[in-house]
Design a protein that fits this description.
single chain; alpha/beta; 7-stranded mixed beta sheet
């Protein structure tokens, strides 16, 4: 921690020297990536001793916005900035645009300077004249709108004529001209225009419709196709990233033309991606986003996506998880090009490790895990770091042959222990484990690490786009360093934000804990955000994919998606696919006194709200008899104006049946608990009560309706982000699962099968659970009917 504080103090001092205000400097330090970039840019520009504030602000912009595909040209741009040949934000943005198009290719200095306005001077007099002309052209509109005039449009007109003019001077002159023309602001200038007046000025109703149809709001290209942000495989010759070493050298990682041509020959120029889960648990909704990105990009570009099991840790992996992953990928609608395992490449990985040692880029180390941690914190080299190559080769062979005890040796990559990136602190490439491998058997007793194997297997499988979540961004340097050290093809790496959802935990460690300690009922408990749990709850893969697509593929990593946003997509899907049916969760008996006890009517009930009368398949039969059951919550002893249920002397309509009026109430001995209601029905349906109730009737005299068990699921945790709590288990919602053992259902549900989903009218969407038996159906509540997302949750 002391080292970190010292580094922060040094960075703060450096940032203040280039003219950043203290608040901006401190905010920058809070972001490790921007800190590293800005520090590197300052050193690259030779401004460690400081500079003018105007130059410093441009340097900060270079550090935060410079195009990653043109890093090879950044030193040239910095020369222009330091010498004040590029001195305005507009010029800098133009330089970014030019260099982004050029990428790593050479360019003509003259073309660059023309594109960026180098040497172009715009005088105050020229800007003043242009401002006067623009105000003269727009005078009538400005006088009418006064200070509600869009000043941005006026400034845009100035920029159009003088793209390299000083924007601050232009803004000052426009403001002065506004004051000259209009005088002081009045209270009326700050009033919002009346919406009612605007409505009166709109065309008549008949003219509205075509106008709306003519100019519908079009979604952006990114919304229609979120994969537009990814480059084509043939463009993978640009600089991927820069690796800054503590000795001042910089490694600019990119493919050679020869390497790329060889890769394109193998792939035919197609996109190749991979979905690489570790088979140590069940997949959750975060993996749904990963699948959407990996499989989705390949599908959109007509390419291929591997399902690759990242099985480098034999102790954590199980066949159960492997089977689950393959099955759930297919359920999500994705078809792998091939199913591979990292262990398929163990021999290749071993041979490349030998090559790494031979090239002086790896060594066998004998430090304990505790010593490795301590040395990394102090940025100290291992005492075995500089041992002879021949010695490391022999020891690595001994490790492979099982001649060294577990924990007594590791193979480490020789990277940079003084780097600002802790993922360059000589990461472990191989460790000894005398554990049989679920896929590779007992052939190996040394196993590669993720950091060593992942990038190499990406390269061996000719992956074009290696896509992962943002927590892996700091591993970019190690990823490309290793491929460069071995002269291997380098895929395009891109990180996106993790999918975090409120009121749940997503870490495999936490999920494994609550599953193994039986806080929930297994990996497919419907309260979990595992894909197995969501499926058992009744959520469709279509709804999950729509949810993921709606979020987009962004790099914003500071937000948690509200659960009601997912529920919104679930409702949208089930509203179209789930037939309606009548079910009563908490039955209250109603005896209809003016209907003969043995009589029975078969009434038509709608499966769909828009069911057509001539479509018999859109209806189902419900029995109506002298004994019906309504929800206990739909009856009150005391009526009120805002209450539409049943009460003494009050009427309500039984959906698809008749109006009934409460004539008597049978109470228990405590004189409070309602046991039974007596009512009369209106066979003529002349009465028109406001309240509409769902109900279920006895199918024949003295026979109870179909009994079903209903499980009501709610949020698993009370807090939106339980993972940040010290005692996160204490935040578990004790009411996340409520079981109703005996609900009453319409006979239409008798033959419902596991996985069938229905809308229980007025209650929500429910799915038949796998615990159902011949004797009793069990339903899980998928989601309630109320949609909070559409009312501001977006």
């Amino acid at each position: 921690m002391v080292v970190k504080d010292q580094n922060s103090d040094q960075a703060l001092e450096l940032f203040l020297k280039i003219g950043l205000d203290e608040r901006t400097a401190r905010n920058t330090i809070a972001n490790s990536k921007v800190t590293a970039n800005l520090t590197a840019v300052i050193h690259e520009a030779a401004l460690s001793n400081g500079c003018e504030r105007t130059i410093g602000n441009l340097i900060y912009t270079v550090a935060t916005k410079y195009p990653a595909n043109a890093l090879v040209h950044r030193p040239v741009l910095l020369e222009y900035v330091v010498s004040s040949k590029i001195k305005t934000p507009a010029q800098l943005e133009a330089a970014f645009s030019f260099l982004s198009n050029v990428a790593s290719e050479k360019f003509e200095k003259k073309e660059f300077e023309e594109a960026c306005g180098v040497g172009v001077e715009v005088s105050v007099e020229e800007i003043t004249q242009t401002v006067n002309e623009i105000f003269e052209e727009n005078k009538s509109v400005i006088l009418e709108r006064r200070y509600r005039t869009n000043v941005g449009e006026l400034l845009g007109s100035v920029r159009k004529k003088h793209p390299w003019a000083d924007s601050k001077i232009a803004k000052k002159l426009v403001d002065e001209k506004m004051y000259e023309l209009l005088g002081e602001r009045t209270a009326a200038d700050d009033e919002k225009p009346s919406k009612k007046k605007e409505k009166k000025e709109k065309p008549a109703k008949v003219d509205k419709k075509p106008a709306v149809d003519e100019t519908p709001e079009q979604p952006s290209e990114e919304e229609l196709n979120p994969f537009l942000i990814f480059p084509a495989p043939e463009d993978n010759i640009k600089v991927h990233t820069e690796v800054f070493f503590s000795n001042g050298s910089v490694l600019r990682c990119c493919n050679t033309r020869e390497t790329l041509d060889k890769h394109l020959k193998v792939t035919g120029g197609r996109v190749f991606t991979r979905f690489p889960p570790e088979p140590n648990g069940y997949l959750h909704i975060g993996h749904a986003k990963a699948m959407f990105v990996d499989f989705g990009l390949a599908k959109e570009r007509g390419g291929c996506c591997y399902l690759r099991y990242d099985d480098t840790n034999p102790e954590a992996e199980k066949k159960e998880y492997i089977n689950h992953i393959e099955e759930i990928v297919q359920w999500m609608g994705w078809e792998p090009f091939k199913i591979t395992y990292t262990s398929d490449y163990f021999q290749d990985l071993y041979e490349l490790a030998v090559k790494l040692i031979e090239r002086g880029h790896a060594y066998v180390d004998h430090q304990t895990p505790e010593e490795i941690k301590e040395y990394r914190e102090k940025k100290m080299n291992s005492p075995w770091r500089d041992r002879p190559i021949s010695e490391s080769l022999k020891l690595f062979d001994d490790m492979k042959r099982g001649l060294i005890e577990e924990g007594k040796a590791t193979l480490r990559m020789k990277q940079d222990m003084q780097s600002d990136n802790f993922n360059m602190y000589d990461l472990i490439a191989y460790r000894i484990k005398f554990t049989p491998h679920p896929h590779a058997g007992d052939k190996w007793c040394i196993y590669p690490s993720y950091d060593y194997a992942h990038c190499i297997v990406d390269s061996l499988e000719n992956i074009t786009h290696s896509l992962c979540t943002l927590e892996f961004e700091t591993r970019r340097a190690s990823y490309y360093w290793l491929l460069h050290a071995l002269d291997l093809y380098q895929p395009y790496v891109w990180e996106y934000s993790r999918l975090n959802v409120t009121n749940t935990v997503m870490s495999k460690r936490k999920l494994n804990y609550i599953v193994t300690n039986k806080y929930v009922d297994g990996w497919d408990d419907p309260r979990l955000m595992t894909l197995a749990g969501l499926r058992r709850r009744g959520v469709t893969s279509t709804a999950i994919n729509a949810f993921v697509r709606g979020i987009g593929i962004t790099r914003s990593d500071c937000s948690i998606i509200r659960l009601d946003r997912l529920e919104h997509h679930i409702r949208e899907e089930l509203n179209k696919t789930a037939p309606r049916v009548l079910v009563v969760l908490h039955p209250l008996k109603v005896v209809i006194t003016n209907l003969e006890s043995g009589s029975l009517m078969a009434l038509d009930a709608k499966k769909w709200p828009d069911a057509q009368e001539n479509d018999t398949s859109s209806f189902y039969k419900v029995p109506f008899s002298s004994v019906v059951y309504i929800e206990r919550s739909d009856f009150r002893m005391k009526d009120s104006k805002d209450y539409y249920g049943l009460a003494p002397g009050k009427s309500a309509l039984l959906r698809y049946a008749f109006p009934i009026k409460c004539t008597d109430v049978i109470l228990a001995n405590d004189n409070e608990t309602v046991l039974e209601i007596r009512a009369e029905y209106d066979p003529s349906k002349k009465s028109k009560p406001k309240g509409v109730l769902h109900w279920v009737a006895e199918p024949s005299p003295g026979v109870d309706p179909l009994k079903v068990e209903v499980r009501l699921f709610d949020r698993l945790f009370n807090s939106e982000n339980p993972a940040e709590l010290d005692n996160w288990l204490a935040d578990l919602n004790p009411n996340s699962k409520v079981v109703i053992p005996t609900a009453y259902a319409a006979p239409a549900l008798t033959n419902a099968a596991v996985g069938d989903t229905f809308q229980f009218e007025r209650l929500g969407y429910f799915t038949v659970d796998k615990d159902s038996t011949v004797e009793k159906l069990v339903f899980n509540r998928t989601v309630t009917l109320k949609d909070t997302y559409g009312k501001g949750g977006k």
